[in-house]
Amino acid sequence: MQHQQQGILDWTKEGRVLTVEQKQFYRDNGYLVVRNCIPQHELERYTNRFQELCEGRNVPTTMSIMRDMTLKGQKLEEKTVNKVQDFGDDPVLFDYCKYLTVLDVVRDLIGDESSSIVAMHTMLINKPPDNGKLTSRHPMHQDMEYFCFPPEDHIVCAWTAMERVNRANGCLVVVPGSHKGKLLPHTYPDWEGGVNKAYHGIQNYDPSMPRLHVEMEAGDTVFFHPILIHGSGANKTAGFRKAISCHYANDDVCRYKAFENQNQIVCHFHLNFSNSVILEGNIERRPRYGKDRFE
Ligand SMILES: O=C(O)CCC(=O)C(=O)O
């Protein structure tokens, strides 16, 4: 991790909520599972709100609701929607990004007590039962493919299981330690049944790399580095597999850089802290070539 030497990330120091061992596990493996981060009643609020969004109720104009590619043209409903993206203007779903049990871990991993943290990218990923085409698979990729606000070590994703996730319903799969490598070239995989929009995968991915299925209970959260190679398998069960996620960046360190590809995302949500209490979270969109955050 290149910025370690700058002293911002001190892996030898106990965090606010993480132990030195947990921090070092993240440093060495590029991911960390924290059990019981989000309580069941909150997960139920997010699930209910997702179901409302699928019915088209009070959908913020800034939000994208995406259908599985094999179900294009079909009515929006829980079994056709595979992703809700950019929920910064949704008061219920955005509560997830402000949840302090998550934010405390985020600050331990990409900053410190006084760091200013921004929520950069938000998703609720729904895997309906696979319809036989395996389109619920997510190819192995690195999230930095989509982001243009380095340095990577000051970005982290929090991904919370909204129900039990395991191999059968398509839990996350990670390649431990792969965050120590570089951002690799990505493309759409050449899969027979097709692949969902923007589900890019690493070109010439070597499937023999040792990988791990991250099985978790509802409310457990995996935090992972944006260079970590990860993906998820098909949901082969009859139930849904939902997860909610937010990518955070340390706003004191990360800066937008010139666009290299059009997939990169430009919008972020400020989280203002005062003694660890969130005062407000509001969406702020920057023009593609915004000035002050530009390198
Ligand atoms: O939730 C999933 O199945 C995969 C999500 C993911 O890897 C991503 O959106 O980057």
TrEMBL record:
Name by which UniProt lists this protein: phytanoyl-CoA dioxygenase
GO BP of this protein: fatty acid alpha-oxidation
PANTHER family named among the record's database cross-references: PHYTANOYL-COA ALPHA-HYDROXYLASE (PTHR21308), PHYTANOYL-COA DIOXYGENASE, PEROXISOMAL (PTHR21308:SF1)
Gene3D superfamilies associated with the record: q2cbj1_9rhob like domain
A Pfam family that the UniProt record links to this protein: PhyH
Key words of the record: Dioxygenase, Iron, Metal-binding, Oxidoreductase, Vitamin C
The keyword Iron is annotated on this UniProt entry: yes
Pathway involvement of the protein, from the record: Lipid metabolism; fatty acid metabolism
EC number of this enzyme: 1.14.11.18
Family assignment from sequence similarity: Belongs to the PhyH family.
Cofactor(s) the protein needs: Fe cation; L-ascorbate
Enzyme type, top EC level: oxidoreductase
GO molecular function: L-ascorbic acid binding; metal ion binding; phytanoyl-CoA dioxygenase activity
Listed GO CC annotations: peroxisome
